[in-house]
């Protein structure tokens, strides 16, 4: 009987967690920008579940919500390297998603010597929204870390160049404009950072509107652009690469380098017209700031000084995604599997308790 009560309590806690944001079917409102978005996509990579690294890799690559870069971008200049992206350069490590540049000194050919990493959403229907992540950059010179929206016709980029000192964040629209042979400030910008991005996690974000994109670092507006703003459905991507371009990335990197992503949170509209808010469970949009506080208190500290695991999570799954569409929220991934096992155990315990009376 005690076992039954414990299981009932655990499963109730899990059920409450699964339905955390089920009432937000009127969308998500940001009081700071007066914007309202219809959907939310959140993924947390913190883990303490004791799963072996090999098993984590298998789960990660099988995860249907994610896309892994596995292609080659040819060298853009005679003295630069091709960017060879391999999915094996993305893995779970140090309670984060690690995206790496790896160097094999024994190889002579550039396409064999250096491998890069990239990961993104399988969804390609993001059409305007607020996109942010907590990332830690690398201290190894010669690489570029990117967080961006991608469509074959254009991009919106935040990039961190490890060779630049003092550290800066770069912002860009693609296609970009040139002025006197140099990148135009209309489609390219940068801000000097007052911290070392390789020492700790910081929040990088951009808000994408029709004809306007606003870039933020740690919640502070850093730059805005109104020229060549992407207006097509896109996927969200993160990558880490090196190509030896003396005018940008520099390098190439001569040793392994990694960036780490603690989590990703997107509030957005979908190009799928059937995914708009229905307001069947609520009358007003949920406050993005309150939702963000809830995610931070459950998944990590809001401070860039460190992070905490979710003590309320039953299994501390290696990855957890919350996606909302219309009137429901689903936590996708290992958490669902755990809940199924708990539910099965609960039914079995009920049967064991009632069997003597049958």
Automatic annotation (TrEMBL):
It comes from the Eukaryota. PANTHER family: ACYLTRANSFERASE 3 DOMAIN-CONTAINING PROTEIN, GH16 DOMAIN-CONTAINING PROTEIN. Residues 295-325 are annotated as: Disordered. Gene3D superfamilies: 2.60.120.200. Keywords: Glycosidase, Hydrolase, Membrane, Signal, Transmembrane, Transmembrane helix. The active site is at residues 155, 159. Residues 1-15 form the signal peptide. GO terms for molecular function: hydrolase activity, hydrolyzing O-glycosyl compounds. One of its GO terms (biological process) is carbohydrate metabolic process. It comes from Mucor plumbeus. The keyword Membrane applies. The chain crosses the membrane at residues 331-354. This is GH16 domain-containing protein. Residues 295-307 have a biased composition (Polar residues). CDD domains: Glyco_hydrolase_16. It holds the Pfam family Glyco_hydro_16. The keyword Manganese does not apply. Residues 47-257 form the GH16 domain.
């Amino acid at each position: 009987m005690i076992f039954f009560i414990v299981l009932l309590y655990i499963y109730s806690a899990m059920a409450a967690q699964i339905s955390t944001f089920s009432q937000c079917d009127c969308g998500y409102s940001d009081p700071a920008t007066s914007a309202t978005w219809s959907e939310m996509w959140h993924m947390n990579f913190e883990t303490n579940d004791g799963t072996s690294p090999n098993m984590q890799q298998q789960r990660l690559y099988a995860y249907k919500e994610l896309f892994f870069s596995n292609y080659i971008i040819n060298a853009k200049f005679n003295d630069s390297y091709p960017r060879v992206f391999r999915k094996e350069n993305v893995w779970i490590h140090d309670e984060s998603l690690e995206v790496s540049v790896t160097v094999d000194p024994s190889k002579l050919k550039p396409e064999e010597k250096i491998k890069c990493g990239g990961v993104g959403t399988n969804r390609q229907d993001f059409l305007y929204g607020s996109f942010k992540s907590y990332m830690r950059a690398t201290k190894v010179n010669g690489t570029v870390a990117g967080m961006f929206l991608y469509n074959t016709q254009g991009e919106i980029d935040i990039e961190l160049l490890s060779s630049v000192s003092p550290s800066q964040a770069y912002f860009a629209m693609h296609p970009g404009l040139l002025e006197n042979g140099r990148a135009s400030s209309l489609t390219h910008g940068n801000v000097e950072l007052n911290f070392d991005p390789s020492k700790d996690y910081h929040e990088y974000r951009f808000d994408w509107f029709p004809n306007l994109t606003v870039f933020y670092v740690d919640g502070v507006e850093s730059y805005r652009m109104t020229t060549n703003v992407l207006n097509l459905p896109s996927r969200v991507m993160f990558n880490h690469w090196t190509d030896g371009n003396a005018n940008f990335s520099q390098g190439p990197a001569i040793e392994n380098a990694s960036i780490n992503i603690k989590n990703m949170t997107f509030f957005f509209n979908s190009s799928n017209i059937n995914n708009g808010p229905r307001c069947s469970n609520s009358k007003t949009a949920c406050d993005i700031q309150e939702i963000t506080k809830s995610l931070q208190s459950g998944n990590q500290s809001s401070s860039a000084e460190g992070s905490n695991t979710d003590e309320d999570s039953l299994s501390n799954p290696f990855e957890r995604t919350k996606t909302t569409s219309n009137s429901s929220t689903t936590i996708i991934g290992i958490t669902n599997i755990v809940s199924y096992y708990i539910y099965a155990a609960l039914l079995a315990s009920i049967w064991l308790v009632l069997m003597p009376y049958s």
